[in-house]
Amino acid sequence: MREFNLADDKLLSKSVIEAVDSWDEPVSNDSGLGATVHAYMRNRRWKYIFVSICLIAIVLVAGYTVTIGSVAITFVEAYETMWNHITGNIIDTKFDYVVWDLRMPRVIGGIFAGIGLAICGVVMQNTLKNPLADPYTTGVSSGASMGATLTLAVFGGALGSWYGAIGAFVFALVPVVIMIAITKMKDASPTTMVMAGIGIMYIFNAITTMMMMTMDSQTMQAIYNWQVGTLDLLTWDQIPVLLIVVLIGVIISMLIAGKLNVLATGDESAKALGIDADKMRTWCLILVGVISAAVVAFTGLIGFVGLVAPHITRLFIGSDNKFLIPAAGVFGGMLMIIADAIGRTILFPEVVQVGVIMSFIGGPVFLALLLGSKKKMW
Q: How far apart are CA 294 and CA 241, in angstroms?
């Protein structure tokens, strides 16, 4: 039986014959495939390098931050004291108290607060398909502010107490519940969510302002310090709660990373792949609300972390949420403790709260990214 030759078929053009012949060529001879695989592996290595650099920076900055204060402690002594405390071999009780009890809670809490806010920013930006979305788009910040103010007015005491934290957390979730109810009555489109969040924010801010007008100057000062964002109020009793909420949020965010990639491409693509876009947004809203409420309850309103960290990370490693979520989280933690270190040293012995420093850093950096980037940020 004579072997069939494509060239004998007069109905096939030369380009079609060449294309079919190329399919029979061994893959090893495809130089284009090799270049593509090489570029992919190089890009993948860079993602791991980026995360590793952020982790190293966190370790170094954390050690430096512990040395800042009225009690002089060197970088090496700080890590020796931490190691001795962990191993139960406490040598200097004074250093141990200063490093572990006074300074470490703000470092650990600051890292995980940054991780939580950055991850919430990634989820919100993908959920709403809006590069300006952040954890506070849901109105969480205004709800927490009202809760903290109301708690302080009713129970008194300090905002760093469990009363203040619980009040801020509970009322931070109220705007989320209201927004979900609004989206159920209308629809869960990104535009509806953003507009609902803005409306809720103004209402809660107005209530907070009215309550503050009836307070004395000392109480108003305490509320103001909390509203600008601070790590001063963190204690070891609160750290486990913050860690558990943030770690669970990270795990859930990683599990839905693939669906977030699809959701960011549009509702039609999501529906074509069997994803209920409206229901997905609602669950993402709940996830972001719980994580950001937990962070805000203990640290106050620290802005720009959830907005800037995802954008900077996206420029380095791309928009794939399977890599973006953990990388943005690590970068957010690094950014938070760097801002805290700057705030504690720039006017030493006075402390500039971390929320103020983040605004100084986040505003110019965001504008620089917006104006200087040669490619789209989204």
A: 8
Q: What is the pLDDT of residues 136-163, one digit of tens each?
A: 887 888 888 888 888 877 766 555 567 6
Cβ contacts of 328 within 8 Å, gap of 6 or more: 118, 119, 121, 122, 309, 310, 313, 314
- For the four alpha carbons of 250, 256, 262 and 264, in that order, the dihedral sign comes to negative
Verdict on whether the full-model pTM lies above 0.70 = yes
Residues 6 or more apart from 293 whose CB is under 8 A from it?
A: 140, 143, 144, 168, 169, 172, 173, 176
Task: Please tell me the distance from the alpha carbon of residue 328 to that of residue 145, in angstroms, as a whole number.
Answer: 26
The residues near 191 (Cβ < 8 Å, ≥ 6 apart) are: none
Residue 269 to residue 266: CA distance in whole angstroms: 6
Are 305 and 121 in contact by the 8 Å Cβ rule? The answer is yes
CB count, 10 Å around CB of 185? 8
Per-residue 3-state assignment (H helix, E strand, C coil) for 8-24: HCCCCCHHHHHHHHHHC
